Amino acid sequence: MSGKFVLGSDSEKQAFRSLKALKAHISTEFGPKTHEAVYAVINTSHPTIAKNDYTPRILPIPHKLGKVTSQKILLVTKDPSNFYREKISEKGSATEDIFDSIISFKKLRSIAHSPKSLKKLSYEYDLIVCDHRIHHLLHPILGPTFYKSNKKLVFMVQMAKPDAEAQLVRGKKSHKLKDERCEPEYILKQIKSIARNSSFVPSTGSCLSVIIGYSDFEAQALTENLNAAIDYLTNKAKFGPVGGIIKNGVKGIVDVHVKTSESASLPVLEKDRSLTK
């Protein structure tokens, strides 16, 4: 393994053993080529956030989870979507073939009137992203279909690189100046980062769940991704303000297990819970 295992050498050995056992179980049950998500479940002594937040944060890992070209992606834009669709889908654009669909917030709200259509939407796409300016409006509309147990969270993207000197324009229905830029190259960079890396959502409870890879990854790669995830979540000095959200760092971790959505949890680290109270 490259780099020191954050939880210590004993936990590194246990993680590798547990991940090998998990892979062997999945291979026996469903075949060696099964592509099943593997999660690290991290229990903490304190919540990582005071109130519910439904914004997924990127969590960098060394062995990528996927790539843009292998995912079906939906983009939700501000209204109207015509301007963004034309720029993003323009022939020769960096994002010409990236998105399978581009819809407006108004269209999404219309789809959400039908629970059946909304559920279909959640299963139809591997990845759903939206303009960061409308992200805060999504939770009341998408509701438990997306947000119960963080089933299908929507990632934020900025339509252009932040620039204090960007030329603003006056809206048609408002005198307020707005940044209406659309930069395909910058959008593509963000989508690539989302597709290749893992993510996490801070919890008001004591449990964080993070994808560290898939069952067809080597156990060593899964172990290295697990280590990177723990390091990012505990090292505030290096990765703050987004990373390092676990209070007291590694000491704030009660236990760590690995599992799939259907399997039993296998141990990586188990502490005496009475010592963390």
Give the total of beta strands. 12
The helix/strand class is: alpha/beta
SSE order:
HEEEHEHHEHEEEHEEHHEE
Number of helical segments with 4 or more residues:
8
Taking the alpha carbons of the first and last residues, their distance comes to 33 Å
Biggest sheet architecture: 4 strands, antiparallel
List low-pLDDT spans: 273-277
Helix percentage range: 25-40%
* Binned strand content: 15-25%
How are the strands of the biggest sheet laid out side by side?
10-1-11-12
Q: What average pLDDT do the residues reach? A: 91
> What is the CA-based Rg, rounded?
20 Å
Description:
The structure is a single chain. With 277 residues, the protein is α/β, with parallel strands linked by helices. Helices cover 32% and strands 20% of the residues. The chain is built from eight helices and twelve strands. The chain has helices spanning 9-30, 82-89, 105-111, 115-124, 138-147, 184-196, 219-234, 236-239; strands spanning 37-44, 57-59, 73-77, 101-104, 127-131, 155-157, 169-170, 177-178, 198-200, 207-214, 253-259, 266-270. A four-stranded antiparallel beta sheet has the order 10-1-11-12. It has a four-stranded parallel beta sheet with strand order 4-3-5-6. A two-stranded antiparallel sheet has the order 2-9. α1 (9-30) packs across α7 (219-234). It is globular, with a radius of gyration of 20 Å. The chain starts with 8 loop residues before the first helix and ends in a 7-residue tail after the last strand. The relative contact order is 0.25.
